From TrEMBL:
PANTHER family: HYDROXYPYRUVATE ISOMERASE, INOSOSE DEHYDRATASE. This is Xylose isomerase. Keywords: Isomerase. It comes from Paenibacillus riograndensis. It comes from the Bacteria. The keyword Isomerase applies. One of its GO terms (molecular function) is isomerase activity. Residues 25-293 form the Xylose isomerase-like TIM barrel domain.
Length: 297
């Protein structure tokens, strides 16, 4: 396949640098990124910790670096939206993160909602549907997107779930590596299946070493495995027996085919680099920016 030519902006997840938001923003700029994604779940970017004045200061500071925000991360972890006892608080916090995103100049918040069960008649499926329907309406009304990260289930199954929500406020943050590493789904086919929903992407690479039940990675309400824990998943991606996250361009993601597929569906949004493992994430991120820039004309 001929090498595709892309015009997409390149982003970096600030938290991947592991040096705090302010220093991470500077490093993203130095690495040559156009924009950044920032975790807004806890710590200095938790909406509850940001007064209106501080929000304006952050927005001005990011603009002063010549960066824009591609999205916020609003992933609340745990069982996503599978536990009815926790959903009211999680839905409300998700709404606050979406409001913060709009104030900071982005329409997108990315998240994990938990694995969509294969059985549409299951209690977990219904619980997730009810929560996502409310979030989808809320996002739609404010012209925003609550974007589910791909990986825990196949693209076809995720599309079926999204089609049932009625609005596109809940949409997709496409992560090709998650698909390659866990379900073994084909990212190229996945892009075409989810073409009506993709609003943001993560640029990440990986390899699948053995079969693994997605519930043992992402957890599931009522299942014996622990709930989603990002540190645990990162450890699995670095030293586990089932899959590994690797530097961009060195794994099983077919970048020529994947980027061509994004071109084919008319995707103009960000390619945002995520690096969750490795002893020198800054070096890996710099290489990733150069790798993606190699697809520009």
């Amino acid at each position: 396949m001929a090498r595709p030519v892309i015009t997409n902006k390149i982003g970096v997840i600030v938290d991947s640098f592991q040096v705090g938001v302010k220093e991470g923003l500077r490093k993203a700029k130095e690495a040559g990124a156009d924009g950044v994604q920032i975790y807004a779940v806890q710590g200095e970017f938790d909406p509850a910790n940001l007064s209106p004045a501080v929000r304006r200061e952050w927005k001005d500071y990011i603009a002063s670096l010549g960066l824009e925000i591609s999205a916020l991360v609003g992933d609340l972890g745990g069982h996503g939206f599978q536990d009815p006892a926790q959903n009211r608080a999680k839905i409300d916090k998700s709404k606050r993160i979406m409001e913060l995103a709009k104030e900071l100049g982005t329409d997108i918040v990315t998240t994990h909602i938990g694995i969509v069960p294969p059985d549409r008649d299951s209690q977990i499926y219904e619980t997730m549907h009810i929560a996502c329907e409310e979030l989808s309406r809320y996002a739609h009304e404010m012209n925003a997107y609550f974007a589910i990260e791909t990986g825990p289930e196949t693209a076809a199954h995720l599309k079926m779930f999204l089609d049932g929500l009625g609005t596109k406020g809940v949409s997709v943050n496409f992560d090709p590596a998650n698909m390659v590493m866990v379900t073994g789904d084909d990212p190229v086919q996945g892009v075409h299946a989810l073409k009506d929903y993709i609003v943001h992407t993560h640029a990440k690479d990986g390899v699948k070493l053995a079969e693994i039940d997605p519930r043992n990675v992402y957890g599931q309400y009522g299942y014996e495995a622990p709930a989603l824990d990002h540190e645990k998943v990162a450890e699995m991606a670095e030293t586990g027996q089932a899959f590994r996250e690797v530097p961009l361009g060195t794994g099983s993601v077919d970048w020529n085919g994947y980027l061509q597929a994004l071109n084919d569906i008319g995707y103009k949004g960000y390619l945002t680099i995520e690096r969750e493992v490795g002893s020198n994430p800054e070096a890996d991120i710099r290489l990733a920016v150069e790798f993606l820039k190699g697809f520009r004309a």
